[in-house]
Write a structure and sequence with these properties.
homodimer, 8-stranded parallel β-barrel, alpha/beta, 278 residues
């Protein structure tokens, strides 16, 4: 089953547009888990168990596993195994390298880790992106306008064609003819989100930056979802994982996920809501 | 010892501007090594042993280790251990993520793998780069104008400030006040290399794209080295690693490294040569 089918199934089944980012930071684990050898794995397992009926997707950012050293790869694999098969997964590693090398990154994500989707940094151009598009049952989310302050440094430069993030969005639409792709657009830019949605009405958007980074759920739905068939995956990581630093962390993660799910669903307009319900 | 000291020591000791890219592709190993469980490690060990007195640096591209799955991390670590302590190492992973996440990538490279330098994709801006600059005894090479065909898609766009690759170069010069950084400029763009060197006279340049990708050693020295104090690291990977597919692969790698070293040294002008000799 392809990524988009799997995603749409999960959206309808769990009535959710929430993607939970599984980004374990050893410094921020609940106190009772700190220090134990399997503490990160236990943290992931319990968080997944507590949220799996409330989400449409899980995203795993490679940085947090790479920073664990040799244990990181197995931790990532075990996290993946705790995720039900009918929920899609995204490896967030923002890969971008020359064609020959990009093939190896695609192999790492799709053949070794068997994720359903990836994030890709498009700065190096088409040959850096194409090896990901060639996996036609997966999906590559290309960076467009990221949620962080530094997005203003280059992504907002006016170019001979258009503002850079719009050039990136338009190129992704062209490249989506090769294979499935989407865009990463930060929730912190509601007005630009609307503009990008107009440029790419049919692409799925991965939208980080709600909660901790300041993005607002309602404006994400209003500007990102629009009236198109393109879906939105609204990612929250820290605000869910670290909702409580105590023994109730999994319950707190569930409550935080439920709150975001509810805020998103309330913002979904009737016409879109009927689509959500299938 | 900081990256630049270590690099300068190696340049003088080995009279070399060559960086060998250790990018093991299981499909391209010599026939007698294919299939063995430790074949990639043996390949790396023998290649390093055969070239270590002819190079100024080794670069390890993470994609090739990630694509090995669970074994990849240890293979990378064992490759690192085969490199003499007085030769600097670069983890080529083109990392780029929001500040909080970039800290974890920096930790992976500098604390876990203990490399001397990294490559960083600057598309996400300052907060994606800064965590790397904060390691003041290391060096972050920021993508500027990459060697591949896709570099034309975005890096060559004219922007309100200047062509994007020049904007990236100028920003790196500004950010080098925070901590050590350099630029990645492909050998396949000799004219632009000269322009970028004028913009960033004091930054070290990591220059991929000679040999297999078509770049020319002489023009790299003439355009990249200039008359500044900024060094160049000229990377070759496939043309060295796969110089022979037979049992003589390590000897062939040595000959290919020696040929590139000689071509670069012959192109070095007398004034720069005296600098090279210290």
């Amino acid at each position: 089953m392809g990524f988009l089918e799997k995603l749409n199934g999960a959206v309808k089944r769990n009535q959710s547009l929430v993607c939970v980012g599984l980004d374990p930071d050893p410094q921020r684990l609940p106190a009772h888990l700190k220090g134990g050898a399997d503490s990160v794995q236990a943290f992931l397992r319990e968080t997944i168990h507590a949220t799996r009926d409330l989400v449409c997707c899980y995203k795993l950012n490679f940085a947090f596993y790479g920073a664990l050293g040799a244990a990181g790869w197995n931790t990532l694999r075990e996290g993946m195994q705790a995720i039900p098969d009918d929920l899609p997964t995204i490896l967030d590693f923002k890969a971008g390298d020359i064609g020959n090398t990009a093939e190896h990154y695609a192999r790492m994500a799709y053949d070794r880790l068997n994720v359903d989707a990836t994030t890709v940094n498009p700065l190096m151009g088409r040959d850096a992106v194409e090896p990901f598009l060639n996996y036609t049952d997966r999906c590559a989310f290309l960076l467009c306008l990221t949620s962080n302050p530094g997005s203003a440094d280059f992504q907002r430069l006016a170019t001979e064609e258009d503002v850079l993030y719009k050039v990136l969005a338009k190129k992704a639409v062209v490249w989506s003819a090769i294979g499935p792709c989407g865009l990463v657009v930060g929730a912190t830019h509601p007005n630009e989100l609307r503009v990008i949605r107009e440029l790419a009405p049919d692409l799925p958007f991965l939208i980080p930056g709600v909660n901790t980074q300041g993005g607002d759920a309602k404006s994400v739905v209003q500007n990102g979802m629009g009236h198109s068939s393109g879906g939105i995956l609204v990612n929250a990581s820290r605000s869910i994982l670290y909702a409580s630093g105590g023994r109730d962390f999994a319950d707190a993660a569930r409550r935080a996920t439920e709150a975001l799910r509810k805020a998103l669903n309330q913002a979904v307009e009737p016409v879109s809501e009927s689509r959500l319900r299938g």
